[in-house]
Specification:
366 residues; alpha/beta; Rossmann fold; 2 domains; 6-stranded parallel beta sheet; 6-stranded mixed beta sheet; 20% strand; disordered N terminus
Length: 366
């Protein structure tokens, strides 16, 4: 009886071991859609400025929120205490510890932080907008759990320049940039090319002088932006392209103040459609148009890709006219229908590749 019981126990033990052995390696395939995993959470760490900066941070966050609405994911953003690598890594770590395994970071200042984080947190996924991970030597190292996204700012700046010249026909333009870094510079260079293209092809007469191209040096000094805009308007500038985050908000504030006093001054917005930010009376806005980069769409698309199990880890992507990643707003209340039609034709040429905008300074004003 005892021997029979031992034999039955051994058989049962063998069957149990076999069952465990068959199931132990099928816990979660690498390409399993994220929303099938328990608790898909999407986090964001803000760059300089606030989540409602009407620019890069806000546009990125709006893409995250849209994904949350469509896919039912939990979201959270954290604002670092400072702008150093250590500050960024601290907040990335806080999100990770709270269960957020998909983290979006907007801006080149995250480059070395993401370089460290992608190795420190291999189970997390990272989206780095406007930059690529590196150790400080500028050599790109995009991990399999990271995607790096850039934008053709020169193309959206070009379209905004064409639209500006076509709508105003003549006058002077100025440019206020934040930090003098490639994404901001490309907005400037594209804008100048757009103005020149309109002058050469559509008979407009807009000018932009070297002394009216200024990089303030930050993205959050609202007061400085207002002061710079006031100086330009006092010199007779008709329209300012402000690619400067919070500094641009200051320029917008100055334009609104002058518009309320009866002056006809304009701002070209940046990154997102800033028309609402420029409203000064009723539904009137000083935003002529905006040079947009679809940062919201980029964030949304990457979350969607993760949801569907097709996250493009290890890749460097570019959002351009060819994939509808840049442009001006679909609706521009301060542009005539004729101007919008001509700009649409120019956009179609960019999309087809028959018209090419330079992403380098060349002979343009710095």
């Amino acid at each position: 009886m005892f021997k029979k019981g031992v034999g039955l126990f051994v058989v049962l033990l063998f069957m149990l071991a076999a069952a465990v052995g068959c199931g132990g390696t099928t816990d979660k395939p690498a390409d399993k859609p994220a929303d099938e995993a328990k608790g898909f959470k999407v986090g964001m760490v803000t760059d300089a400025g606030t989540i409602d900066d009407k620019s890069f941070n806000q546009g990125t966050w709006e893409g995250v929120l849209k994904a949350a609405a469509d896919f039912g994911v939990e979201t959270r953003y954290l604002r670092p205490a400072g702008e150093t690598e250590a500050h960024y890594i601290t907040e990335i770590g806080n999100l990770y510890d709270a269960g957020f395994r998909f983290i979006v970071t907007p801006g080149f200042k995250f480059e070395t932080a993401i370089f460290a984080a992608q190795e420190r947190y291999p189970e997390a996924k990272f989206v780095l907008l406007d930059g690529y991970p590196h150790s400080g030597d500028w050599a790109p190292v995009v991990g399999d759990n990271t995607v790096s996204i850039f934008f053709a700012e020169h193309e959206s700046g070009f379209l905004a320049g064409v639209a500006t010249a076509l709508q105003l026909q003549e006058g002077e333009a100025g440019f206020i940039g934040g930090m003098e870094i490639p994404p901001v510079q490309k907005f400037n260079w594209g804008f100048q090319q757009g103005i020149q293209y309109a002058n050469d092809n559509f008979g407009t007469n807009m000018v932009i002088k070297p002394e009216n191209v200024i990089y303030q040096g930050t993205f959050d000094n609202v007061a400085a932006g207002q002061q710079l805009a006031a100086q330009m308007y006092d010199k007779g500038i008709d329209v300012i392209f402000a690619a400067a985050g919070g500094v641009g908000v200051g320029a917008i504030n100055e334009a609104k103040t002058r518009a309320r006093a009866g002056a006809e001054v304009w701002i070209v917005g940046v990154d997102v459609d800033q028309y609402a930010e420029g409203i000064y009376e009723g539904d009137k806005s000083i935003i002529l148009t905006s040079a947009m980069k679809r940062i919201d769409q980029a964030a949304y698309d990457m979350i969607k890709a993760e949801k569907e199990g097709s996250f493009p880890g290890g890749e460097i992507l570019t959002f351009s006219a060819q994939n509808d990643g840049v442009g001006i707003p679909a609706k521009n209340p301060n542009l005539s229908a004729e101007v919008e039609s001509k700009v649409a034709e120019v956009f179609a040429q960019l999309k087809a590749g028959s018209l090419v905008v330079s992403d380098e300074q060349g002979d343009l004003i710095k």
